[in-house]
Design a protein that fits this description.
mainly alpha; 10 helices
Length: 167
């Protein structure tokens, strides 16, 4: 992930503001909030500003994913060129469906919040949509997960533990 973030920050620096770069990275699948916070620490964006930008950027696409991804995947399954990609999306969501369904709200929140490869708000929204989870439960659950991820990644990206120890 660090290499991708470095590529984005290098290519976009001088074209966009540091905050815009962080916002865009935070909106992208795979990179999301984790990549945004990493980029903001590389670009020297202040912690509080970066945190707010990353949370908003990460959450902005989620309602659209929840509302439309299931229909898009169903449409993709109708065409040979996109059928394998749609199948890949379904398998990715189904891979974690047992844990998410077993623990419900908190299962989805932990899935989104624990910063491991293949987890995050986009994948959580994909799973919630394909599992037909209630929007009134999935949106707050994904928000809780993003806040958890922001706390974990803040410690990792900005070294807050080291700063607290030196106080």
């Amino acid at each position: 992930m660090e290499n991708i973030v470095n590529l984005f920050t290098g290519k976009l620096s001088g074209i966009l503001s540091e905050e815009a770069i962080v916002f865009i990275i935070s909106m992208l699948p795979v990179l999301e909030l984790r990549g945004g916070l990493l980029a903001s620490s590389i670009l020297g964006v202040s912690y509080l500003r970066a945190l707010i930008i990353c949370i908003i950027g990460n959450l902005l696409p989620i309602p659209f994913v929840l509302l439309f991804i299931r229909h898009i995947i169903e449409w993709m399954e109708c065409f040979a060129p996109t059928k394998s990609l749609a199948s890949w999306f379904r398998k990715k969501a189904e891979k974690h469906s047992d844990q998410i369904q077993l623990y419900g709200f908190w299962g989805l929140a932990l899935f989104v919040g624990i910063p491991l490869p293949g987890t995050g708000a986009w994948t959580g929204a994909l799973a919630a949509a394909l599992l037909r989870m209630d929007l009134r439960k999935s949106i707050p659950s994904i928000l809780a997960g993003v806040l958890l991820a922001s706390a974990i990644m803040s410690v990792l990206s900005y070294g807050l533990i080291a700063n607290i120890i030196h106080l």
